[in-house]
Write a structure and sequence with these properties.
The chain has 158 residues and is α/β, with parallel strands linked by helices. The protein is 43% helix and 15% strand. The chain has a seven-stranded mixed beta sheet with strand order 1-4-3-2-5-6-7, with helices on both faces. Helix 1 runs parallel beside helix 5 and helix 3 packs antiparallel against helix 4. The longest helix has 19 residues.
Length: 158
């Protein structure tokens, strides 16, 4: 595991499950880090290019199932924002008092988590039995806007 830089300050910060995070969302986060002076940490099992900034860092973890997720869960603090598409990771973040947001701008909450986990498990069972379920919908500009709006709300509360 390697840290490429150090966070600029202590306090609520942003963690990114970066292996599957769209590049356009990372760009929004990089701009927000500079504008709001908030630490953003990308966690992935591969080397990631990040812009030079005292607010942006990356952590490379070893390959393997859920290694990046485990690293995020180990480091997240109450009030931190975690950007992820991974529903089980989002559930763990919520349990630790963090805030989980997917790249399409949808907040994971205790109210919707049980339904999301059930749907995820159901889809996994379908795929496991050979049913073609298709992938996620295409990523659109409205998704970027929804994400940016939720991010701005979190930054304003920070």
């Amino acid at each position: 595991m390697s840290d490429t830089t150090t966070p600029a300050e202590v306090g609520p910060q942003i963690w990114v499950d970066a292996d599957a995070c769209p590049g356009v969302i990372k760009d929004i986060l990089f701009r927000a880090a500079e504008r709001a002076k908030v630490p953003v940490t990308l966690v992935a099992n591969q080397w990631l290019r990040t812009p030079p900034s005292r607010f942006i860092r990356s952590i490379q973890v070893s390959g393997g199932l859920d290694v990046a997720d485990s690293e995020i869960v180990a480091r997240v603090q109450r009030g931190d924002l975690v950007v992820t598409q991974d529903i089980p990771l989002a559930a763990l973040v919520l349990e630790k008092g963090g805030i989980a947001l997917n790249p399409r701008g949808e907040l994971y909450t205790p109210d919707n988590m049980a339904e999301r986990l059930s749907m995820r498990n159901f889809m996994d069972e379908l795929r496991g039995s050979g049913v073609q379920t298709g992938g996620p919908a295409a990523f659109h500009a409205r998704d970027c806007q929804a994400f940016a709006n939720q991010l701005d709300r979190w930054l304003a509360r920070r």
